[in-house]
Amino acid sequence: MTDGAIAPKLFALSWPLVAGNLLQTLYNLADVFWVGRVGADAVAAVSLMFPMSWMFVSTAMGITAATIALVSQHVGAGEDREADHVVGQTILLTIAVSVALAAAGFLFRHPLLELIGAEGAVYTEALAYIEVIFLSLPLTFLFFAFRAALQGAGDTKTAMWLMVVSAGLNVVLDPILILGTGPVSAFGVDLTIAGMGTRGAAIATFVARLFATAVGVYILLRGDWGVKLHVADLRPDPERLKKLVDIGSPATLDGWARSFSAVVMAGFVARFGPIPTAAYGIGVRLMSVSWTVSGAVGQATATGVGQNLGARTPDRAASVTWTAMAATMGLLFTAAGLVVAFPAEAMRLFIDEQAVVDEGITFLRIIAPSWAFFGGVMVIQGAFRGAGITKAAMALSFLSRWIFRVPVAIVAAFTWTVSVPLVGPISSLGWGVEGLWWAYVVGAVASFVVAVAWFRAGTWREGVLDHEPVPAANDD
């Protein structure tokens, strides 16, 4: 990413990341699809565990955001051995954090399920599921570390192909372990597998992740893909570990802030009844396509910015960002145009109930044009992460959701009046559920303006490596 035409290299980095994100979604869809054949309680149990699983994924993504920044900058600077050392310390840190989380989660699994409101059969099914998921946490963290290490070196395809095989393995194992095989024998040996319900779904995920992680660690030990894991680098390096934590912790908080705000907004929508809630659920699934694309381009941007800062070419790093942002916003404006032109058709891909379709048409016509602004913010966040300035990326997430979106939703959607001394009564707008849709628009546009201004200020241009500052063009 440090020379040649920018756009083709961004595309080459981005499309495997898009595919990888979609395959990660396939894991969840396959589990829910086959668990649905067991019963409503099993589906509720798996759905109830999703927010908790996302918290763990956010933690893994936070640690590995630091890995992408440091590895890419060392690779750009030609410091391959330093990049390898970062990989070793990342593996050490992910093992320590994931084992600690897995042990604590398994120890307190009963109070956790009671805290989130699981009861009766749902409690039983959720317990069977989460016990295995906690055991798989170290595998999840290690795979994220592997993917981040290769991504920092500029390789996004290898992890994608591993995800293809892993997701395929999960899809094959799900029906066998969830529903069972029925009476089966071969060569006189009984091969019958009893259906295990939600525990079977968790075991299928465990096996698929074990395969992907084992191959990933082998690839890192081989060292033929740009970075290498040296056993000697697993010796704790307090200074390097501290830098990984300092850079990675804001990215973890970023993920937590996003997941909590999603829960809050869903709660707001639910207050207006089942029809808007159903329309919102479908609309969010359509929006998730924009998240998948812009998130992947943001990850590719992080690699490009990191490598160019390591090579001490910050102007090219800025060009990478503006190119990625323009392409992403152009693509999302086009997608939004299609959705706005054919909103009913988009909704009927999921449901035929006319009341839900009508509400969904309103949702899409208000929110879809703002997808491009939200995508632009995600690209700039990727640039900040590549520079190692993860606090800026975190701040943009907080601004978008907790400063612009949630307060606007409260003012625009609900009806209330408060009396302010010396001012008098102040009333909300009370637009109903449409106020929630407009809150998304305000959050996207306002955070985009802040993101562009912040990036143009150039506070990210030095990166996080211990190098002398790069002189400006007019310096003597």
UniProtKB/TrEMBL annotation:
InterPro entries for the chain: MATE_fam, MATE_MdtK, MdtK-like
Primary location recorded for the protein, binned into one broad class: membrane
Compartment annotation: Cell membrane
Residues annotated as transmembrane: 12-30, 42-71, 91-108, 128-146, 158-180, 200-221, 322-342, 362-381, 402-423, 435-455
Biological process according to GO: monoatomic ion transport
Membrane topology: Multi-pass membrane protein
Molecular function terms, GO-annotated: antiporter activity; xenobiotic transmembrane transporter activity
Any one GO cellular component localisation term in the record: plasma membrane
Keyword line: Antiport, Cell membrane, Ion transport, Membrane, Transmembrane, Transmembrane helix, Transport
Residues annotated as signal peptide: none
PANTHER family: FMN_FAD EXPORTER YEEO-RELATED, MULTIDRUG RESISTANCE PROTEIN NORM-RELATED
Name this protein carries in UniProt: Multidrug-efflux transporter
Organism encoding this protein: Haloferax profundi
